[in-house]
Design goal:
heterodimer; A: Rossmann fold; Ubiquitin-like (UB roll); 4 domains; 5-stranded mixed β-sheet; 15% strand; B: alpha+beta; 4-stranded mixed β-sheet; 46% helix; 12% strand; elongated
Chain lengths: 511, 155
């Protein structure tokens, strides 16, 4: 009997290890021989730990499993959900990047290959670098980290950048896996559930631009992801996917996993590069672009995990296939991460274009608390709070920019009507003050003044509201990077859409 | 307790293991902290010399990152997520309860040296918050009662 129990951190956080122990004990008691595979998550976090059993008809799901209920895996019961593939939440998705996540053993290269893995790389190995770059350009893929810069253009810049290999110069591929935004966990899930997709994407990027060395810059907050990623890299080296002769092609690609040390700002690409070089994670002024002078001053591709993990399917199925999904200039699919106070939270990959109403109320099933939705913060701590009145905006880069918002890394934090938006605004400034790298004044000083100003408003001093607005303008236009530059998004969106939360103290004082 | 000779010898091993690494300072500091539970200030000149940087630069890097400790933590480390998604599920309430129960503010350690309380910003468990990292293990849907049980296990 083959049983799958996720090793994904969300499953573990909800008791997967205890379930494994209980399943083993129950199987032993019954004299049933079981093979337990630790897969990634299917993304339905509210059903975790989601246990699956192989049957002739397909995999059957049970969840959310508890150690007390494991007998149901053998006998059936109320936790039996039927065939996993038939679950409506999964059926409604278009899984391109996450096609294998939750299905295969994440550290088995054989299973990866059996489920369509390495098809993209095999094709790329028969192409020139310029051809691979063109394919990615044609796909319309844009940076999934948040900035939305076309991946193909970045790659072309690095491809065209001159180096002198005879002097030991090389180009680098750096994966930004410093997924620090609250409400986002797509990078974590793919690293824990299908790490070879990222590795394959990085090798393809290496072929495209002529880079022979890659780094994955991950987070210390992700111990489970780092464990799986390190194991996959080790397997990749042993099986000839990584190293001096990639799949026997003669191409070189070495890969190293690096772990950050708790600094949020290192998710900004130039701070990340400094950190990777062993320096303080301070932001660099651009230009020079990292594409030309990145790691150790060499041409470097810095891409988000999901951008790179989407490359294998683009090469495997062709750019046109990928570009056939989405809306306007937002091509392909986006792994929505539905989080916070939501009934059915998790990862939902679908073509761009859904409205928040559908995402939050239909797919997410409304709030976990059962109270009305107040707002959704899209794009992490630097993203705007979107009120219910704007829930009809289609999910896309330009569409959100038009609403003074950003899609960021596509994390959505749902808040119910008990949320105090002034407290959320204060938290945004406090977070910016804690995490500021200190290089530029608007961020370093502005965030501290922001907290003070919000405290004045909280005391009923409404005259400080214009001051806050002015401060946000300064931070937005004067900061060196997105930390100081985008902190005004949550603050100003909270103030604009929920002014009553900011004037409550003044009203009380007047009464 | 290691004396300074032991510490220097262990650091030398760590430095040797990273001699071919590009931009090795963070991996070195992680290894040092893994070995000793913190980064003793006395090892910074040794690391600085190996990395061909000034002691001030090594100190600057070590103090920039939240993870690196200048002194040992308690036997157990309880990290509570403070980020937005967890807040929407009551993280502030659970954190206030933790602070009150333990008699600690963030970054403090109980007088018996057993428990250190720290904030953490996002464990990627945003659809099952509030979340925590308890001695390196992830915990989701944290409640006051669950927290009490964790603390009891630590004492």
């Amino acid at each position: 009997m083959r049983i799958w129990i996720p090793r994904d951190a969300s499953a573990k956080a909800l008791g997967a290890e205890e379930v494994v122990t209980a399943v083993k004990a129950e199987a032993a008691r019954r004299g049933v021989e079981v093979t337990i595979t630790r897969n990634g998550s299917r993304g339905m976090v509210w059903l975790e730990p989601l246990v699956e059993v192989e049957t002739p008809e397909g995999r059957v799901a049970f969840g959310p499993m508890t150690p007390e209920d494991v007998a149901q895996i053998f006998d059936g019961g109320e936790l039996a959900l039927g065939l996993t593939e038939d679950l409506p939440w999964l059926r409604a998705q278009t899984r391109l990047t996450f096609a294998r996540c939750g299905i295969i053993d994440p550290v088995s290269l054989d299973e990866y290959r059996a489920h369509g893995g390495l098809k993209g790389l095999t094709r790329a190995l028969a192409m020139t670098g310029a051809e691979v770059v063109q394919e990615v350009l044609n796909s319309g893929l844009r940076g999934r980290g948040g900035a939305g810069f076309p991946t193909g253009i970045k790659w072309k810049t690095v491809h065209d950048a001159p180096i002198k290999p005879e002097l030991g110069e090389k180009k680098y591929i750096v994966t930004n896996a410093d997924e620090g935004d609250s409400g986002t966990f797509a990078d974590r899930m793919i690293m824990e559930g299908d790490p070879f997709t990222l590795i394959e994407g990085m090798i393809i990027a290496g072929i495209a631009v002529g880079a022979t060395k890659g780094f994955i810059y991950s987070r210390s907050e992700y111990p489970d992801a780092n464990e799986v990623m390190a194991a996959a890299i080790a397997v990749g080296r042993v099986e000839g996917l990584l190293g001096q002769n990639v799949l026997g092609s003669g191409k070189v690609f070495e890969l190293e996993l690096r772990v950050g040390a708790g600094a949020y700002v290192c998710g900004e690409e130039t701070a990340l590069l400094n950190s990777l070089e062993g320096k303080r994670g301070t932001v660099r002024a651009k230009p020079p672009l990292p594409a030309l002078q990145g790691f150790m001053g060499r041409p470097t591709v810095v891409n988000n995990v999901i951008s790179l993990a989407s490359v294998p399917v683009i090469l495997a199925e062709g750019a046109e296939h990928y570009a056939s999904f989405g809306i306007g200039r937002s091509k392909g699919t986006i792994p929505l991460q539905i989080a916070g106070n939501v009934k059915h939270g998790g990862l939902f990959e679908i073509a761009f274009g859904l409205t928040l109403d559908r995402i939050v109320n239909e797919i997410g099933g409304g709030t976990a608390s059962g109270r009305p939705v107040k707002a959704v913060q899209v794009g992490g701590p630097l993203g705007a709070w979107i009120p219910v009145s704007q829930f009809d905006t289609p999910f896309g880069y330009e569409e959100y920019a038009g609403q003074n918002a950003l899609i960021g890394h596509a994390g959505l934090t749902v808040a119910d009507d008990t949320a105090d938006m002034m407290a959320m605004a204060r938290f945004a400034m406090e977070f910016c003050a804690i995490e500021s790298c200190g290089k530029c004044t608007p961020c370093r000083i502005g965030a501290v003044r922001g907290v003070e100003t919000l405290d004045r408003i909280a005391r009923g001093d409404t005259a400080a509201i214009p001051l806050l607005t002015d401060l946000c303008e300064t931070m937005k236009s004067g900061s060196l990077c997105a930390l100081g530059g985008f902190t005004p998004y949550p603050v100003m969106s909270a103030l604009t859409h929920f002014p009553d939360d900011f004037t409550g103290a003044a009203r009380e004082a007047a009464e | 307790m290691l004396d300074s000779v032991d510490i220097a010898a262990r650091v030398e091993e760590i430095l040797a293991a990273h001699s071919g690494t590009e931009g090795a300072l963070l991996p070195i500091l992680h290894s040092v902290q893994e070995s000793f539970g913190y980064v003793p200030e006395e090892v910074l000149p040794q690391i600085a010399q190996h990395q061909n940087i000034s002691k001030a630069e090594a100190y600057g890097v070590m103090t920039f990152y939240h993870d690196f400790r200048a002194k040992p933590a308690g036997t157990h480390v309880l990290k509570l997520c403070r980020a937005e998604s967890c807040q929407t599920m009551g993280a502030d309430r659970v954190a206030a309860h933790a602070k009150e129960t333990l008699g600690l503010d963030w970054h403090e350690t109980t007088p018996d040296g057993k428990i250190t309380l720290e904030p953490i910003f996002c464990l990627g468990l945003c659809a099952c918050g509030p979340s925590a990292l308890v001695d390196g293990k992830v915990v989701g849907r944290l409640t006051e009662a669950k927290l009490d049980a964790i603390v009891k296990g630590m004492r």
